[in-house]
Design brief:
- The structure holds two protein chains of two kinds.
- Chain A is an all-alpha fold.
- Chain A has two domains: about 20-80; about 85-120.
- Chain A has helices at about 15-45, 55-75, 85-120.
- The longest helix of chain A is centred in the C-terminal third of the chain and has 36 residues, at about 85-120.
- Chain B has a five-stranded antiparallel beta sheet. Chain B has a five-stranded antiparallel beta sheet with strand order 6-5-9-8-7.
- Chain B is an alpha+beta fold.
- In chain B, helix 4 (about 80-105) packs antiparallel against helix 10 (about 315-340), helix 5 (about 110-140) runs antiparallel to helix 8 and helix 8 (about 270-305) packs antiparallel against helix 10 (about 315-340).
- The two termini of chain B are about 40 Å apart.
- The chains are: A mainly alpha, B alpha+beta.
Chain lengths: ~120, ~350
């Protein structure tokens, strides 16, 4: 049944053969990128031990590489990059505000609790 | 993709609540909101993991030491198997995005092909996780030991193979002089954990007592993970001292001084919470993968029956695709924060 009171947004997503070739190229590029990042992570993890002086740098590069991977998955694979700005930011902004706050407060608190237990015994 | 700008919309539709400010259908928008809430759940789990980890600092287990085994190949491959699992999941995410792309071209055959590939990848991942759990639960050959001063240490080195048990005192099942050659490792670990091994003798279930024929352990290292009275966290006991200490504990006949593998109460890798977080986080993620595979299969049936082709668009594939990519996204974070860092 055709309904003229609903706008069928899903039809807007259709694209032609030629556009498809371009999109597939991008998908392959992202695949290679994600794989290379994962390999780099494993090699770094195997080579540099957690007690070495370079570890803090490696740890932060792991976190940055992870955010890179996550960004590509969300923006390209999940097509959030192609959606309207309003949708993009109503997904990303609330999440980031909350999660950054949560990470900050719990890691600081975790260190403090650990310190307290070490000093006063558990 | 920007088709919406070309569409004429009259004022009544525009202001009557029928147009989406996001230019997205109701279903897709709801999927996004669900994913945000689910991402907060996983975020909460990973952050509470971080909380506990910061609480323990030095005594927390290190990923590449705990997870260094491959199926059929044994140990010595730090994180390779987890990396392989990550790769499988990324590839299945790629095949999913290719299915969505085929859907946008109304290419039914393409959608079917790529969705089947995605489902296979998903099953591979779930299977790998099952193997990993089994390996984590059974643990290493040495286990974790409690030293005389109450410190807890993990043990590294080469395990001397157990050859047989020779029964010296008969029980209800075994006769004197019997040589047992089956299920040795399992019996041995079970007996050690219960304190049923004493000075090279093992007390078996049926009440018999047998002499253990075992090659010597070599290159032992005891790495202290939790402080007792004497040893600091991270200190390593090596050489003959380590061997004497380990053999002493194993042959002490005291229960609970050696822990093998993992359960929710204790594990050989580190603090109790480590095992709990492992089971909860990877379990919750594995459950998502499993349900994702089931949803993919249901949608695949829809595609095969031509439901979406008749509808004129493959948005259902896109929506399940969103869920599937989300599962991949979560794993990227679990991989970093549970295994790598």
């Amino acid at each position: 049944m055709e309904r003229d009171d609903i706008i069928e947004y899903s039809l807007d997503a259709h694209h032609s053969e030629e556009a498809g070739v371009k999109i597939r190229k991008k998908i392959i590029f992202v695949t290679v990128l994600l794989t290379v990042i994962t390999i780099v992570e494993v090699v770094l993890g195997a080579l540099i031990k957690q007690d070495s002086a370079a570890w803090p740098v490696v740890k932060w590069s792991f976190i940055i590489m992870t955010l890179f991977k996550a960004g590509y998955i969300v923006l390209v694979f999940m097509h959030l990059g192609d959606e309207r700005k309003a949708l993009k930011y109503s997904i990303l902004v609330p999440y980031f505000i909350f999660i950054i706050y949560l990470i900050f407060i719990l890691l600081v608190e975790g260190t403090a609790v650990g310190e307290t237990l070490r000093i006063y015994g558990s | 993709m920007a088709g919406h700008a070309t569409k004429e919309i009259d004022a009544k539709t525009l202001w009557g609540g029928k147009i989406s400010p996001f230019s997205t259908s109701y279903g897709k928008l709801m999927m996004w909101f669900f994913l945000v809430s689910d991402a907060l759940t996983f975020g909460g789990l990973l952050v509470s993991y971080g909380f506990t980890r910061h609480d323990y600092l030095g005594s927390w287990p290190i990923g590449e030491e705990t997870f260094n085994s491959m199926p059929f190949l044994g140990s010595g491959y730090p994180l390779l198997y987890v990396a392989l699992m990550t790769f499988i999941l990324i590839v299945s995410s790629v095949t999913m995005v290719l299915a969505v792309e085929a859907g946008h071209r109304m290419d039914k055959k393409g959608v079917i092909k790529w969705m089947i590939a995605t489902i296979i990848g998903g099953f591979f991942f779930v299977g790998s996780q099952a193997w990993e759990w089994s390996h984590f639960i059974h643990g290493s050959k040495f286990g974790k030991v409690e030293l005389a001063d109450g410190s807890l240490a993990i043990v590294k080195g080469t395990f001397g193979e157990i050859e047989n048990f020779r029964v010296e005192e008969a029980g209800s099942h075994h006769k004197k002089g019997d040589v047992i050659t089956e299920d040795l490792m399992h019996e041995y670990q079970h007996a050690v954990a219960l304190g049923h091994v004493e000075n090279g003798f093992i007390h078996l279930h049926d009440g018999s007592k047998a002499k253990i024929a075992k090659k010597a352990n070599e290159d032992l290292q005891l790495v202290v993970k939790e402080k007792g009275g004497k040893y600091a966290i991270g200190s390593v006991i090596e050489g003959d001292e380590a061997i004497a200490m380990y053999e002493g504990i194993v042959n002490s006949g005291e229960a609970g001084r050696v822990v093998y593998g993992a359960n929710l109460q204790q594990n050989e890798y580190g603090p109790q919470q480590y095992g709990q977080f492992f089971f909860f986080i990877t379990g919750f993620h594995g459950f998502h993968v499993f349900s994702g595979v089931i949803i993919n299969i249901i949608i695949l049936f829809g595609v095969l029956r031509g439901v979406y082709h008749k509808r004129g668009h493959y948005e259902m594939v896109e929506k399940t695709g969103l869920y599937w990519h989300f599962v991949d996204l979560v794993w990227v974070f679990v991989f970093t924060f549970f295994y790598l860092v």
